[in-house]
């Protein structure tokens, strides 16, 4: 990468430039198949299982971000998008300034097959309510300090912000 003075930037400087500040606006998409919910396991912080989600950033609107994040993270085409709740959560992301987010959560209908992002996810799949409850118990132990960070990263539960949303939405 060239600077305005024409000198080469170091690779770490290049990476620094690419880090976006948090816009504090996020979307989360609930995608159901029969009685199972699509979850991904995040490869990057914040670690844990979550529904497809992401920042609004330069996607334009919350709705556009929702459609593009579903495509990016799990490869589905969105056929219907319905806002089911919204609100502010104190949840940390990896970006500077990302200590809270204003969320819009959507019920989403899709078409296609799962094609997970290999850059952002360790896995993606359909989880029953009972399987989600098992992940929830692991999250509660983590939040109580019973699971160290390294063990959490290796084998996480539900991402803490989704524990909050799932409780509010009466999914658990």
Question: What are the key terms here?
Answer:
about 170 residues, Nucleoside Triphosphate Pyrophosphohydrolase
- Cα-atom radius of gyration: 17 Å
Give the topology string: H per helix, E per strand: HEEEEHEEEHHH
**Quick one: CATH class of one domain?**
Alpha Beta
Name the CATH superfamily assignment of one domain: Nucleoside Triphosphate Pyrophosphohydrolase
Number of strands: 7
Structural category: alpha+beta
Kindly report the CATH topology of one domain: Nucleoside Triphosphate Pyrophosphohydrolase
**Helix percent band:** 25-40%
Query: Main sheet, how many strands, which sense, barrel?
Result: 7 strands, mixed
Number of helices in the DSSP assignment: 5
On the 0 to 100 scale, the average pLDDT is 90
Protein architecture, described:
There is one protein chain. The protein is an alpha+beta fold and 172 residues long. The chain has a domain at 21-128: Nucleoside Triphosphate Pyrophosphohydrolase (Alpha-Beta Complex). It has helices at residues 11-18, 62-74, 129-143, 149-154, 160-168; strands spanning 25-33, 36-42, 49-50, 53-55, 77-89, 101-111, 121-127. Strands 1, 2, 3, 4, 5, 6 and 7 form a seven-stranded mixed beta sheet that branches. Mean pLDDT is 90; it is low at 1-16.
């Amino acid at each position: 990468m060239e600077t305005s003075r024409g000198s080469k930037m170091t690779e770490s400087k290049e990476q620094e430039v690419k880090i976006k500040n948090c816009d504090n606006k996020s979307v989360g998409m609930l995608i159901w198949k029969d009685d199972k919910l699509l979850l991904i396991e995040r490869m990057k912080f914040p670690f844990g299982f979550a529904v497809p989600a992401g920042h609004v950033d330069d996607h334009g609107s919350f709705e556009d971000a929702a459609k593009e994040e579903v495509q990016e993270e799990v490869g589905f085409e969105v056929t219907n998008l319905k806002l089911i709740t919204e609100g502010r959560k104190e949840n940390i992301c990896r970006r500077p300034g990302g200590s809270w987010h204003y969320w819009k959560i959507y019920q989403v209908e899709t078409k296609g097959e799962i094609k997970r992002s290999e850059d952002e996810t360790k896995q993606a799949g359909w989880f029953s309510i009972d399987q989600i409850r098992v992940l929830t118990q692991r999250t509660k132990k983590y939040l109580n300090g019973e699971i160290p960070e390294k063990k959490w990263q290796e084998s996480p539960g539900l991402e803490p912000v989704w524990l909050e949303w799932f409780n509010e939405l009466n999914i658990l």
